[in-house]
Design brief:
binds ligand CA2, globular, about 15% strand, alpha/beta, about 160 residues
Length: about 160
C-alpha cells in the first residue's frame, strides 16, 4: 500500500510567539506564515499538512502517536524541548515515521545548552539555522526520502544502484 500523502507539522512550546518578539533571532514571520509556507511546499509535491503547535508536551506526543494512522512523515521544530525531552524523542522513535528536525536559528552558535538535541539521531533530515525558509526545504527533503528519491546510490551515470 502507498504511504498516505500527508505530513504532520509539529511546532513546540513558545513557537506560537513567532513574529511577536526576538525578530533578530527568529525573524518576523508568524506561526500562521510558517504553516502556510509548509502547506504550500507540501502541496507542490502533492502532499497535505496537518499542523499542530502546543505549549504542552503531552499534546505534542498525542499528535505524534496519531500520525501513525495517517501520515507518511513528521516535520518538527520541538522548540526548547529539543534540548530536554527524552519523552518527545521516545514518541518520535516509537511511531517509526521519517522525521525532519527544523530549527529557525543556528543553535550551534547560541548558548551551550542549545547544542545538544535529543531529537537529532531519530531524525533523517536536519535543517538548522536557515530561518523560517528552512521549513520548506525540510518538507522537500523529507518528501524526497518518502518518495525514494534523493541522494541515493548512483553509478555515476545517474542510474540508481538497486
Ligand atoms: O531555533 C529554533 O527554531 C528553536 O527551536 C527555537 C526554540 C529554542 O528553544 C531552540 O533552542 C531553537 C524557542 C522557540 C521560541 O520561539 C520564540 C519566538 C518568538 C519569541 C519568543 C520565542
Amino acid at each position: 500500500m502507498n504511504p498516505p500523502r500527508r505530513l504532520l507539522l509539529v511546532n513546540g512550546p513558545n513557537l506560537n510567539l513567532l513574529g511577536t518578539r526576538e525578530p533578530e533571532i527568529y525573524g518576523s514571520q508568524t506561526l500562521a506564515d510558517v504553516e502556510r509556507l509548509v502547506t504550500d511546499a507540501a502541496a507542490s509535491r502533492g502532499f497535505e499538512i496537518r499542523a499542530v503547535q502546543s505549549n504542552h508536551e503531552g499534546v505534542l506526543i498525542d499528535a505524534i502517536h496519531a500520525a501513525r494512522e495517517d501520515c507518511a512523515g513528521i516535520v518538527i521544530n520541538p522548540g526548547g524541548l529539543t534540548h530536554t525531552s527524552v519523552v518527545l524523542r521516545d514518541a518520535l522513535s516509537g511511531v517509526a515515521l521519517p522525521v525532519a528536525e527544523v530549527h529557525i536559528s543556528d543553535v550551534s552558535k547560541r548558548e551551550p545548552f542549545r547544542h545538544h538535541s535529543y531529537i537529532a539521531d531519530v531524525a533523517v533530515v536536519h535543517v538548522i539555522g536557515e530561518g523560517v525558509a528552512g521549513y520548506a526545504s525540510a518538507v522537500d527533503r523529507l518528501i524526497g526520502i518518502i518518495a525514494g528519491e534523493g541522494a541515493g546510490l548512483t553509478d555515476g551515470t545517474g542510474r540508481g544502484i538497486p
